[in-house]
Amino acid sequence: MPHYLIAQSELPEEREARRRRAGKSSGETYAATLEQMQPGIKTTIVSPADDAASGFSNDKLAAFDAVFLTGSPMHVYDDSSEVRRQLDFMLRVFAAGIPSFGSCAGLQIAVAAAGGQVRKMPERMEAGIARRITPTDAGRSHPLLAGRPSSWDAPAIHGDEVEELPPGATLLAGNAVTWVQAAEIRFDRGVFWGVQYHPELALREIALAIAAQAGDLVEAGLANREEDVKAWSDDLDALYEAPDDRALRWRLGVDGEFAEERLRRRELANFLSNLRMLRG
């Protein structure tokens, strides 16, 4: 039975705020998604950025089949003890040679730990839907993106982005908003596959996150009024309930790659199916 370690970088107050909003912390969402995809697996959730988080030796990490890094509000360019603990954890994962996967802040943590750079997005945040993600030449044949079409949309919400990939990384996909939407990082003994978007999230969770940040989206110029954000969020929530609704798909400008759960989770499914190869 596979045993997966899920590392959430949300701090305690952020986890509680997310539970109040969406019912789960980011780690709990990851665990639920993985358990739906592979019934019977075992998951362990840890919070390496917390003061009380225990360290992980190579032997302890070796007990897991893979490590998953969640999204969170963490800014990995901040020089804080929480960020340093999170980056130290990722360095241990790389050193242990355990295959790892991350989304959003999870990608940024792996990038920073391996020597790359992350920054606040200079123009605007990407919120709700990452549009027209396009694979690079390397990405077209990479197993992380197997089954993806020539371009696709995905759930996303982030105000930070990868500025520079670390040595040993391969750019797999990008779009007009941020040049790194998917990447592979090989560092120390480890291999990491990551995306800037959120294949693990249900559309309802994205809808709730958008609604919670309505004021920020108006301030960023992505909406004129908070009421417009609420209406858009309501459409996303309705699509969660009725993913085949053609009128909703048309209004949101999405197809099955975004609307259908199985297709939305492609990258996670591809990572899981390649674990044996990644462990070498």
Automatic annotation (TrEMBL):
Coiled-coil intervals: none
Signal peptide interval: none
Region annotated Disordered, chain positions: 1-29
All copies of domain Glutamine amidotransferase, residue ranges: 40-205
Domain of life: Bacteria
GO cellular component, one term: cytosol
Protein name: Glutamine amidotransferase domain-containing protein
InterPro entries linked to this entry: ChyE-like (IPR044992), Class_I_gatase-like (IPR029062), GATASE (IPR017926)
Pfam family for this entry, one: GATase
